[in-house]
Every structure is written in C-alpha cells, then in structure tokens.
Amino acid sequence: DNSFKYVLENSPVSSRLSGLFVMSVEHTPDLDQRLEITIELSRGRTPSVTLNRTITKLLVNKLCQINTEYAKLYSSIGRRAIPKIKLVRYGKIYTIPGKKHKWVKK
C-alpha cells in the first residue's frame, strides 16, 4: 500500500530499513482480523523491541494524519486498528531479481 510505503520511506527510522515490507491479514485467537506488516531491516541491523515500538507509533500517527479511512477506523476501534509489526533481518523477505516486489501476501 502506498500510504505504508510513504510513511516508512519518509520516517526518521528509514535509514534502518531496507525498504521492503509485506502486509498480510492474520487472525487473532478471537478470530478478529489483524493487519500484520513484516518489515525488513537494513543490512547489519537486528530487530529490537524499541525499534518495533518506534515504527508502530510512527505508522499509526502518520497514517491517522494522511489516511482518513484509517483515522476513522482508529477512532472507532482504537488499539485493535494498530497493525502488528514484525521486524526481520536483511535478506529475510524473499524477492526475485528483475521482478516487481509484491507488497501484499495473500
């Protein structure tokens, strides 16, 4: 999604990210849907709780500003609208050289 890509590329932490991410819809134990975003870190970076929290806050705050649909969802269901962020090391998101990267996992 372009909104997520825009936020990640224009954030204070963008230098720590490779630029690749994959979005998917997961289900909670209560069978609620939840957006999960797997974000690849730049070479040499390791996932951390602090970076995960920072990215989550940045995404939610900026998306509420630039995406009215997300802002309405967030004001309606609150924390349940916060995507689950999963940080992975560089090279863990599989891409095929010469082919366009798929941002959404089906």
Task: For the structure shown, list the relevant keywords.
3 helices; three-stranded mixed beta sheet; 24% strand; single chain; 106 residues; globular; alpha+beta
Oligomer state of the chains in this structure: single chain
Tertiary shape: globular
Helix-strand makeup class: alpha+beta
Any low-confidence stretches, pLDDT <50, length ≥5? none
The tally of helices reads 3
* SS strand fraction: 15-25%
Separation of the first and last Cα atoms: 14 Å
What share of the residues lie within helices? 25-40%
Radius of gyration, in Å, reads: 14 Å
**Total strands:** 3
Q: What is the string of helix and strand elements?
A: HEEHHE
Average pLDDT number: 87
Widest beta sheet: strand line-up: 1-2-3
Biggest sheet, open or closed, and with what strands and sense? 3 strands, mixed
Topology:
Blueprint: H1 2-9, E1 17-27, E2 33-41, H2 49-66, H3 68-77, E3 84-88
Parallel strand pairs: 2-3
Antiparallel strand pairs: 1-2
Helix pairs in contact: 1-2, 2-3
Structural features, described:
The protein is α+β, with helices and mostly antiparallel strands. Helix content is 34%, strand content 24%. The chain contains three helices and three strands; from the N terminus they run αββααβ. It has helices at 2-9, 49-66, 68-77; strands at residues 17-27, 33-41, 84-88. It has a three-stranded mixed beta sheet, with helices on one face. α1 (2-9) packs across α2 and α2 packs across α3. The longest helix is centred in the middle third of the chain and has 18 residues, at 49-66. It starts with a helix and ends in an 18-residue tail after the last strand. The mean pLDDT is 87.
